[in-house]
Amino acid sequence: MISLLIGLGVSLIVTLVGTPMLIKLVHKLHYGQYIRQDGPQSHLVKRGTPTLGGVVINLAIVLGWAASALYRYIAYHDVPSWTALLVLFAMLSMGLLGFIDDFAKVRKKQNEGLSVGGKFFGQFVFATMFAILALMMPTKNGFPSAQAGISFIEHRIISFEFAGRVVAIVLFVIWVNFLMTAWTNAFNLTDGLDGLASGSSMVAFIGYAMIAYWESYHLKGAGHSGFAYSVSDPQDLAILAACAVAACFGFLWYNTNPAKIFMGDTGSLALGGLFAALSITTHTEVLAVVLGGLFVMETCSDVIQVGYFKMTHKRVFKMAPIHHHFELCGWQENTVVVRFWMIEMLFVLVGLVLFYSNWLVGSGLF
Fold first, then answer.
1. Per-residue model confidence as pLDDT tens digits over 219-265
2. Maximum Cα–Cα distance for the chain, whole Å?
3. Spatial contact of 22 and 37, defined as CB atoms under 8 Å apart
């Protein structure tokens, strides 16, 4: 618990102190956000708002986790886990792609950065590396960082082992690529209003902090009663999720309407990569659809809008993603943001109820 609190505290301090410093630097370099011309006209006043805020979010999570790991090493000689480093790799690699995209936008002085092909290629390379390492890398407690299959909660709904190890690895690589691409784009689409992505991400990572913390006290072979999990180093995963909560919370202080800085793709892609990696390493890839329900809703609205328009040349929503639809219906920006936070809270609550109900059933208590 102390190590978790250290991670929380350091991550919060880094964002609260580091974000205004970054705002001054970005102002000095004239790295302002360029607003899409086809978006709501009310957003044009945001042009020039400092971007690249995701840099401080990434830094806060890394430093928070590192401070926690240092404390555990000094106090208990507990070395950092490979699983945590792997999850950090997923976050930072996706954040790097986002940084390249953001930097290209401010250099070109337009809202088009890294090409779609370039972004997908980068995601493919990093997601493939993550997938292979997650299956191959040795861990402290002997459980692999990931399971070669699709898991709801711990147990695999579909196992990729049906045709041998090589086929299982190939299928798992494809599955991880899908998850990384889907979640990074979902978080990116949600980053469209002041505080929407940072607040919603904070709520989503609260869910994963609680899940990983519960798993850390119910590991197979640890002697605890009830259903047990074969998850690798869940305590480290809980600390990482908690650091993400604190980083988003601290960043939200400056990102709330009217935003003094945007997280940009540097932040949204990194948080999406972190969410995807946590779902894989906690063996809850399908449950993540519920825990990140708001992000799924935003993505589905965009897919529906584009697909329906291509078929009929008509629109289902006034504008997609769906948060813009409600803006154009007359809702104030703050109203949309707070109500969407509430929706994400409900999704996380349902996800946690499903997780705990699964443990009760698995323990024979329900």
1. 887 777 788 998 998 999 999 999 999 999 999 999 998 989 999 99
2. 64
3. no
Per-residue buried b or exposed e for 111-121, using 16+ beta carbons within 10 Å of the residue's own CB: eebbeeeebee
Determine if residue 91 is left, alpha or beta; phi over 0 gives left, psi from -120 to 50 gives alpha, anything else beta.
Answer: alpha
Span 73-108, pLDDT tens digits: 898 888 888 999 999 999 999 999 999 988 887 776
Compute the distance between CA of residue 181 and CA of residue 158 in angstroms, rounded to an integer.
Answer: 20
Whole-angstrom distance, CA of residue 364 vs CA of residue 280: 26
User: In b/e form, how buried is each residue of 319-328, taking b as 16+ CB within 10 angstroms?
Assistant: bbbbbbbbbe
Binding residue per annotation — 265?
yes
Q: Residue 302 annotated as binding?
A: no
Q: In angstroms, rounded to a whole number, what is the distance separating the alpha carbons of residues 263 and 98?
A: 10
What residue spans of the chain are helical by DSSP H? Answer: 2-29, 54-76, 82-108, 116-136, 165-190, 196-216, 234-255, 264-281, 287-291, 293-312, 322-328, 333-362
Contact 130, 176 (CB under 8 A): yes
pLDDT along the chain (366 residues), means of 10: 92 96 85 56 60 93 96 88 94 95 76 77 95 84 85 91 88 96 95 93 97 92 81 93 97 92 93 97 96 96 91 88 89 94 98 96 84
| 182's tokens | 């889907």
Model's pTM, two decimal places? 0.93
Q: Give the residues across from 158 on adjacent strands.
A: 150
Output the CA–CA distances (angstroms, integers) from residue 92 to 48, 59, 95, in the order listed: 26, 9, 5
Query: β-strand 156-159 against 149-151: which pairing, if any?
Result: antiparallel
CA proximity to 278, closest of 239, 229, 246? 239
Which tokens belong to 145?
Answer: 């960082």
Secondary structure class of 141 (helix, strand, coil): coil
Query: Which residues make beta-bridge pairs with 50?
Result: 32
Evaluate whether 12 touches 250 at the Cβ level (below 8 Å): yes
Q: Are 140 and 233 in contact (CB under 8 A)?
A: yes
Using an 8 Å Cβ cutoff, are 163 and 188 in contact? no
